[in-house]
Amino acid sequence: RAKAAGRGVVEVFDEELRHELAVQATTEEALRRALLEGELVLHYQPVLDLVTGRTASVEALVRWDRPGHGLVPPDAFIPAAERSDLICDLGRWALAAALEQLTQWDEGEEFAGLGMAVNISGRHLASRHLLDDVTDALSASGVEPGRLTLEITETVLVDEPSALDQLRALRELGVRIAIDDFGTGYTSIGQLPRLPVDVLKIDRSFVASPGAGHADLVRLVISAAHSFDLGVVAEGIEENDQLHRLVADSCDSGQGFLFARPSAPADLALPRARATTGD
Ligand code: C2E
Ligand code: MG
Ligand code: MG
Ligand code: MG
């Protein structure tokens, strides 16, 4: 009897697994076609320099404008893309599209000269195609490498030691590297001087909740980053109180719904905050 029940459980798992794999394959297939047919779009969220109060750069964030589904957020399809090399194709496309957008903005007045941040998956970094993809996107657009920042999530740096070699090679091209979602992984502050990075992006979970010693932690991270010559961006700023605390703690840059949500180029406006130094 126990044996039969056990077999039943195995069959249920089998069925679930088969279903999950089928859903996964369908999503992946649809996503591959979406990329070819131009259904992926980039929205842009302003990142403000908290000293001058001006928007200095934008972060490119992908959405899937999927017929019959509306605008699908990245959390709903990036994980599926990351299960195969599809994420590398997506990353290559995003790099090219974001830099092409910069060159278009450079032709006008309002958006000329902005920096651009592009999110890069750990799998793309590990694939070793990234260096070529970045080189190609830079030369096709003619954008100066120093205007491009690649955002890599913190967990990738821990999981993949050879990633550090890739990051060093990328930095030699002149592009900047940011650690995204800092504070959610296991990087210790002591590791920072050895990491080939330029910017820390403090995860919004630390910015949002003032309790649980987070305010002290944020202050500590900012001062450590500065002592290692790293810039600091706070993500997910939603309230004035959070902004004021970050400014008091000498955070360099900030991003969040308080200033602007990510938006399509046609709807983009560059917000300003009150300058913290006279200018
Ligand atoms: P991320 O790189 O950490 O991007 C920041 C996310 O926080 C974005 O979500 C943004 O809309 C959201 N956000 C910004 N300000 C606020 C705020 O004040 N409050 C709240 N609650 N949220 C805020 P989004 O666009 O849904 O992107 C989610 C994640 O998907 C990104 O997190 C990034 O890890 C990934 N992603 C987005 N675009 C790409 C891409 O082109 N390639 C790759 N590999 N990943 C991407
Ligand atoms: Mg990011
Ligand atoms: Mg982030
Ligand atoms: Mg994130």
Automatic annotation (TrEMBL):
Domain (EAL) ranges: 24-276
Domain of life: Bacteria
Protein name in UniProt: Diguanylate cyclase (GGDEF)-like protein
Organism: Kineococcus aurantiacus
Organism phylogeny: Bacteria, Bacillati, Actinomycetota, Actinomycetes, Kineosporiales
